Amino acid sequence: MLSPVHNLTSTAGIVAMGAGAAALLALLLCAILALKLRRVRAAQRTILGGEERDLVGHAAELQSQFEALSDYVQEAAERLGRRMETAERRIDRTMAYRALIRYDAYGEMSGRQSTSIALLDAQRSGLVLSSIHHRDQARLYAKEVREGKPELELSPEEDEAIRRALEADGPQSG
Predict the structure, then answer these.
(1) Of 29, 30, 86, 138, whose CA is between 20 and 30 Å from 67?
(2) Strand partners, 131
(3) Is the entire prediction scored with pTM above 0.90?
(4) 130-159 pLDDT, tens per residue?
(5) Shortest CA distance to 158 belongs to which of 101, 111, 80?
(6) Strand, coil or helix: what is 119?
């Protein structure tokens, strides 16, 4: 049997006190680590929504969801790009240049009732409409224009309408 230690100043007493202090220190450290672990687990439950899985699994799932979202966004951007190209082609065929000229076709002092209208797209193609008014009649003429060149000879007023339309500050909105 072991003999009782009567003196704390003996070698055995000092070793026992050191071992006791080390044990107390280890116990205190364990309590601190347990508290920190509890806080980490609470934060993990907040992030994971109470599900029973680890952060690595959660991060892997987030990565796969992010990649799926990225693919969807890329596909949507490509679809929008194709739609934009189609819309731009269609817009280029709409009226971009226009001008209206009023004049008195017969020099009758009738209040400039005759008109020539140039309506051209971005490629400078379209038409020129001329409405010639006289006291007892009115006539309408339409002439096609392709890339700035008329299919038929233009009157000076029709030529002026095309010139004014194309001299405007670039393509105009309808």
Answers:
(1) 86
(2) 115, 140
(3) no
(4) 999 887 888 999 999 998 889 999 999 999
(5) 101
(6) strand
